[in-house]
Structure formats: C-alpha cells, structure tokens
Amino acid sequence: MSAPEVSVVIPAHDVAAVIGEQLAALAAQRGAPRFEIVIADNGSSDGLAGAAAGFREDLDLHIVDASAQHGASFAR
To answer: What is the tens place of the pLDDT at every residue in 32-41?
Structure first.
C-alpha cells in the first residue's frame, strides 16, 4: 500500500455516539486521493475507540491519545 496523500485529523472528546456517521461518510468517498484518518482522542470516557474500531477494515484509521491537555486546539 502506498503512503496517504492526505491526513484527515478529527479532534474528538466523548463523541462515540456520532463518530460512526463521520467515518461512514469518509469511507463512502469515491475518487478522493489516498487518505488516512487520525482521531485525536482528547480524553474520552464514552468508548470512542471501540465505536471507531469497526471502520478499521474500510479506512486507514489511527486513534492517538491526545489527553495530556483538554481542548480541541491541543488535540489538533
């Protein structure tokens, strides 16, 4: 597999209930350059990683720990 041309970074905190909607939309992309998804988990306590894990087969998906400081700016 070749390296991705684009990284889509999603800063996230307690969005397990809705992350599937975003990931499904990204998985449905056609004609886009090769991309990876980076979910920067900013200290979620709602099972975010588990909710996103089902998309690993369809997406080049990475979940990184961004919980050292709270806020979207740090997560980005």
So the answer is: 999 999 999 9
CB 65 within 8 A of CB 44: no
Q: Which amino acid does the sequence have at 44? A: S
Residues linked to residue 7 through DSSP beta bridges, in sequence order: 36
pTM: 0.92
Provide the β-strand partners of residue 12. 41
Q: What is the DSSP string of the chain?
A: -PPPSEEEEEEESS-TTTHHHHHHHHHT--SPPPEEEEEEE-S--S-HHHHHHTTTTTS-EEEEE--SS-SHHHH-
